[in-house]
Give the backbone structure.
Amino acid sequence: MQAIKELKLEKEIYQEARSKNLTLEEFLEHLDPSPEYQGSLAKMSALERQLLRHDIKVAGPNADVLEKFFASSSSAVLFPAYYQAQVQAGLLATSIVPELVATVTDIDSHTYSSLWMAESEADRQLQEIGEGAQIPTTTIQTGTRTVTLKKYGRLVNATYEALRLQRLNVVSVFLQRVGAQLGIDESDAALSVLINGDGNNPPYGGPLDPTESETSGTLDYDELIRLYLTFPAGYKCQKIVAGDGTIRTILNMSEFKDPWAGFNFQRTGELVSPVGARLLRWTSAASLPSDYVLGVDQRYALEQVTERGLTVETDRLIDRQIERSAVTKWNAFVKLDTNASQAIDINHT
């Protein structure tokens, strides 16, 4: 087997990674690039190769116990990266944010000045101009006030003595569950911004103005068509977010029971709406009212602003002080284009 590159793993590597605005996983990949390998090693991440070099198995029925990380000072340095990777895996498995955001911006601050562009179609259109005439101008500028990032986190309270002989495959399940809750929380925040605005006043970043149902309390195929058509020219309803009651209604529509749509649902479990948008189930009434059917054009809807992404207390974890270790993430969402999200309010006419 091809030899794995031996890296000098010390506590300071985390500070070096932060100075380059990288996670340890990303920094390890910089130091030990996957393209330099062949075969199975090329398919692994740099973190996975370093775990293999230290003979630490984190998955499967023969996974090692947590204590194995602390067999040497260099393997102990890998523990926070493993910890963070498991929390991140849980977050990504639960969050619908990747389905809603157009772009992600990493900053080194807790505040952010967002951009906006003139909203009227006349201000955006290319126009025929005569020779020597002034070219119409589209203005892109910052909002009237900044968006403030909010801190999301969870304190994990477990002693090293309680965990040291636990198998890593079991520990991973609990860390992923912590990440899953962070994914739920950030999804709630993203949906809240789409519906209630990001704190800036209209014409940019303001709250959603839903279309009212033609018949109060009724959702039928025609209402989904109306939602689809509320998007102006140049926009497209790519995603539909709805609660359980609404999802049930949609899945039972005769139009949804088209043989091909039904076959895809039965074969893959993938929810497909009758208007071709990807259907996303969201059950939290705290962010999505139960009578809302929310349509989103992901290309222009939201900007996710984060500071350094997901972080864990590295020094504490390396020193085996696992008890009361914090997992945190600074996050904010900016409404990029008010035309990119539309909604039907089923219970109002």
Summary: The mean pLDDT is 87.
